[in-house]
Description:
The protein is an alpha+beta fold and 96 residues long. The chain has helices at residues 10-16, 31-34, 41-45, 70-74; strands at 18-20, 27-29, 51-54, 57-60, 80-82, 90-92.
Amino acid sequence: MSARPQTMKVEELLQRTTWDVDPRPHIKVDTGKCAGCPTRACVVMCPAGCYTEVEGSIVFSYEGCLECGTCRIVCPMDAIEWNYPLSGRGVQYRTS
């Protein structure tokens, strides 16, 4: 019988992850559109916690983005312009 590959928890994998942050944001948020948002879905759904609500306004920080694209999908206001970072920049997943 062959040995089973080791499995890791998501948290352990994310601890190995590194970022080469591009000084130019790869995500732009139209905060004017966010003001009318009834759900704040980006705050709830972003697995990296890049979106927070501060005194009724959405505050965004792209530096820790996992590049999953969840925010652009769940935003009901079409307020998020999302692109991948320039080649070689952004999140770098490590599995070993």
